[in-house]
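Hi,

I'm pasting everything inline rather than attaching a file, because the server keeps stripping attachments. The sequence lines come first, and each chain or strand is labelled.
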Amino acid sequence: MTRPLVEAAALSKHFTLGGGGLFRRPGETLRAVDGVDLRIMEGETLGLVGESGCGKSTLGRLLIRLIEASDGQVLFDGADITGLPPAKLRSLRRAMQIIFQDPYGALNPRMAVEDIVMEPMVIHGAKPDAAARQRVAAMLELVGLPRQAALRFPHEFSGGQRQRIGIARALVLRPRFIVCDEAVSALDVSVQAQIVNLLQDLQREMGLTYLFIAHDLSVVRHISDRVAVMYLGRVVEIAPKAAIYDAPMHPYTRALIAAVPAPHPAGRAARRAARLRVEGEMPSALNLPPGCRFHTRCPHAMAVCRSVSPPLREYAPGHSTACHLHDPQHRPAATEEFAA
Amino acid sequence: MSLLDIRGLTTAFQTERGEITAVEDISFSLEEGEILGIVGESGSGKSVTALTVMGLLPRPPARIVSGSVRFAGQELTGLSERQMQKVRGPGIAMIFQEPMTSLNPVFRIGEQIMETIRAHERLSTRALRDRAVQMLEKVGIPSPARRLDDYPHQLSGGQRQRVMIAMALACNPRLLIADEPTTALDVTIQAQILDLLMDLRDEFGMAIMIITHNMGVVAETADRVMVMYAGRVVEEAPVGTVFDAPLHPYTRGLLDCVPSLSAAKPRLVAIPGNLPEPARRPSGCRFRPRCGLAVPACAAAIPPLDPHGPGHRVACIRATAEVAA
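And the predicted assembly:
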């Protein structure tokens, strides 16, 4: 039985805007992440999906303490790391790393690849000696780059190769937990598959735990064990991937999956006609709707949805959702019809 | 006569390191009311093809080396900017991935739509305003009369995309070129915009050239598909054929390497290697270094785009060998 490696408890990040902004009233609060409870098990890949502005990247950064939480806790390996002082945080940093979307922006153009990959080791006290260089060379080989890559500069590489460099740098300290923040989104599709395969191979070899943040639902299905869906700062559904994709419970999850273009043109006219559509766009996190945050776009919204925020509740083993439609207390008669 | 007919088009760019061919010897046509999907990855030349048709490439550094672009019977390649402006709007209109490329941040969106119409038609201010409201309504902007006075920054990304489409459609173009129109959008908004494009085609009989790297977008919209790689067309076929019986190894690779939303694949079939830079293209078939079927003959010459059944053209000397197997 695996145990949770990373846990979030009532985790929130609120940004206060205003004071100087030309168009903003002072003191507006943007609730980027708003009371998230989450467990990521050791060795698993948890996919995190949702539309731009839903808070998924902020949540990823909170979990590795790249940014500080406004409220709630983050536990790593069972220990609360929320209030950890900088000195102690530093040793923890070895264990948690992040891979960014933009391999161009994340690599210093003036540093040779060897120095880029070695930098985290030096920061954590290693001497830049022959042994360190040896370790970098082994790392480059592991991510599928030629040995000669060590002495070259980022601009000499293609996008996919640069992402390999970013992965080598993230892994060189032998971390346990990696946040992949849209790590393959900027790559050409023919190269994307190579990096997805590489991430899976490395996970197996090094026993890594991933939080895989992406907006591409097909890639997330492929790489994840479980998937969490976020909407306006909250997790609205979380389940093993087969349950999320084949039997989604939350209307938002259903709409998201229905919106993905089908991989084949056959029957597309009928599909278009039958598709569950959500109208409009996600409201601003500055001005959250009361009750369920999705009710403004939800085709099934009931009176209760406009006033009471639904809690994330487990309705089947490992399958939780935050939706009144599934709560017998609110909709005893119609629940079965909806679930069918 | 086809609405758009392109023959042997080659477009090149002057760079510090010499001239680079972005699009090489491409030929295709597009009929009234047809949706053509042009698929390719970075450097395939798909956007340069579109910008050449629109006459929007700065010359220099760009240069049409050879070939012809005929729109509704008129040759476009030799036209002056003034003459080209008459074609854009009522003839051909274009929408981009990033709506802010077409929207001016310091003008209200109503003024921008009205200006587009004014460039081609003489109408009173009131009639222009009415037309702008109609266009916004058509593309699904709620309370359009009020929105006319908004600035682009006051709109969401999806709404800006709709406004850009409204501007492009304001003069009833016969051909709409959509360059990655949904790439920057979230999936629910992407579905809304694709639905809108399909509805507009059905309503106005407009032809659409949709440029994308996403095979799913093609599967949802296109009647016919053209696949480009490193500046050349490698395969062209009706949409069903491309998905059911693709012949070029690159097309097959593109279909195999994307994960599916429904079926579980244990491991993705990646295309090895990287896309070639324009200055470092290999001899012969440009896909050869990444191709599992390559034989020495592939290096000898660029394979011609040969017919393989109705409406199906493939540039691969190994295409038939593989099908027979």
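Chain B touches chain A through 47 residues (CB under 8 Å).

If the labels don't parse on your end, tell me and I'll reformat.
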